[in-house]
Amino acid sequence: MVRRAVITGMGVLAPGGPDAAGFWRRITEGRTATRRITLFDPSPFRSRIAAEIDFDPAAHGLSAREREHAGRAAQFALVAARAALADGGFGGAVPDPYRTGVVVGTAAGAAAGLDLAYRTMSRGGGTDGLDPALAGPGLHADFVPASLAVEVARAVGAEGPATVVTDGCTSGLDAVAHAADLIAEDRADVVVAGATDAPITPVAVAAFDAVRAASTRNDEPGTASRPFDASRDGFVLGEGAALFVVEELGRARRRGARPYAEIAGHAARADGFHMTGLRPDGRELARAVTAALDAARLNPEDLDYVSAHGSGTPLNDRHETLAYKQALGAHAHRVPISSIKSMVGHAMGSAGAIELASCLLAMRHHVVPPTANLTVPDPRCDLDYVPRHAREHRTDAVLTVGSGFGGLQSAMVLVRPDRSGK
């Protein structure tokens, strides 16, 4: 018997939205959350803007221990995981711990905590060495990436497989894909899966400055992220988390759950081409899309919406456009495609999970979120990128993609459970 994986719960913590409802309202209204960085003084950097979350861990219900021992990314994950369980009808904890897994994706991991620890132990970045007596109680957890999955497992009461997936900007999609595989392989019945990242740190901003990947529209942060626009000059860094309850379909039906969608197919490819660059022809992303459609047993014409990676860098947007033309053929010119990074920034490893959340909400409400700030389309990005305004549109089958440094490409197809041909 084929075990099918569906998503029955969702928790989102994203810039400009304290929960899933606020997140959906922001992106369908086309409002951006980008501003001058407030988490540290950004004055020395080329890019001084980001999409930040106004986050109060106590107000979000985190315990004293969680506030002290868990870093910013882990705290995001805890809030999103508990919201996902509540949304999925589980209350505070899972009913069968041994059959419940956890998969958390991340790119930057605990970069914020490590950066703070370094500045603290070095007394502001001094050169006289580090004083371990100044280290906080959460330093070990920040240093060990597995702590992200451990913290979520502890919070939800899961005692099945616990894994951290960290492969750059595709981590969120790949984490949910791994969860679907755990369901299909009968290694779990429920998996709390998704991604979290808090990369808005001096070291991350410096790194993206070095490769000139981030926008320098510091005087106009609200319109700085311009995917597919002719005037785009780079991405805007973001942060946040989105976690989901991924569940075996039969189990979900028996308990009367209302799934958002079925994970019908997924695939990942890499090109081994360049550490930061992409092959100009979009071949690897096209192959990932085709493989995901094949796994879902769908044709390109079956897709109702595509959630783009849409980072807003000159190279990525052209690469992505070519990939859609190769993988979807003539349908690439008909299907609506949009990038919510134009509004909530690029949250690195959690971007794919946050975009997955937007897909689920698009499917539930039959509304496609827009690509904000798309005013003058790049002639080489000549597909329907849903400029500026949300669009009512039937969305029964959705493709979402991720693209990362190193040539990592991931694609996932979501369908309504009653539409799947399986």
Brief account:
The strands form three sheets. The chain has a ten-stranded mixed β-sheet, with helices on both faces.
Structural notes for this entry:
The structure is a single chain. The protein has 422 residues and is of the alpha/beta class. The chain folds into 2 domains: 5-254, Thiolase/Chalcone synthase (Peroxisomal Thiolase, Chain A, domain 1), CATH 3.40.47.10; 265-414, Thiolase/Chalcone synthase (Peroxisomal Thiolase, Chain A, domain 1). The chain is 32% helix and 19% strand. A 10-stranded mixed sheet has the order 5-4-6-8-1-9-15-14-10-11, sandwiched between helices. Strands 2-3-7 form a 3-stranded mixed sheet. The termini are close together.
Give the second-level CATH assignment, the architecture of the largest domain.
Answer: 3-Layer(aba) Sandwich
> Order of strands in the sheet with the most strands?
5-4-6-8-1-9-15-14-10-11
N-to-C CA distance = 11 Å
CA-based gyration radius: 20 Å
Index terms:
alpha/beta; globular; Peroxisomal Thiolase, Chain A, domain 1; three-stranded mixed sheet; 2 domains; 422 residues
Write the layout of secondary structure elements.
Layout: E1 5-13, H1 20-29, E2 34-36, E3 49-51, H2 64-69, H3 72-87, E4 100-105, H4 111-121, H5 139-143, H6 147-156, E5 162-165, H7 171-184, E6 190-197, H8 202-210, E7 237-238, E8 240-248, H9 249-254, E9 261-270, H10 283-296, E10 305-307, H11 314-328, E11 337-338, H12 341-344, H13 351-365, E12 367-368, E13 391-392, E14 397-404, E15 408-415
Parallel strand pairs: 3-7, 4-5, 4-6, 10-11, 10-14
Antiparallel strand pairs: 1-8, 1-9, 2-3, 6-8, 9-15, 12-13, 14-15
Helix pairs in contact: 3-6, 7-13, 10-11
